[in-house]
Amino acid sequence: MIDNPKTVKSPAALEQFFAGGPQPAMMQSFSFEILEGGKQSKLMNFKVGNTMCVLAVLRATIDLMDAGMRRDFSG
User: Fold this and answer.
1) How is the chain split into domains, by residue range?
2) CA angle at residue 17 from 52 to 25, to 5 degrees?
3) Which bin fits 13, alpha (ψ -120 to 50), beta or left (φ > 0)?
4) Taking the CB of residue 34, how many other CB atoms lie within 10 A of it?
5) pLDDT tens-digit profile of 39-71?
6) Apex CA 70: angle with CA 64 and CA 74, to 5°?
């Protein structure tokens, strides 16, 4: 488990953190949009440490949305 994405030392651990959730394709798609910041407006250009935090918040949001949808449609 990664408590703070800013302190990750291993690329494999970081990849697992972002790809290991319930919606890995969605996370990958949104991550690509965020990480291609050089081609985005200035509002989407984050410093490296801040980008990791944005991706972590994105992952948490996707996890919560997935859990809510599963709960609402499970019965």
Assistant:
1) 48-75
2) 95
3) alpha
4) 15
5) 666 666 667 677 788 888 898 999 999 999 888
6) 155
Count other Cβ atoms within 10 Å, centred on residue 32.
9
Q: Residue 35: pLDDT above 60?
A: yes
Helix (H, G, I), strand (E, B) or coil at 2: coil
Token representation of residue 39: 């081609």
Can you read off the two tokens belonging to residue 24? Answer: 């890995």
Residue matched to tokens 């991550």: 31
31 closest CA partner among 5, 65, 58: 58
| pTM reported for the whole predicted model | 0.68
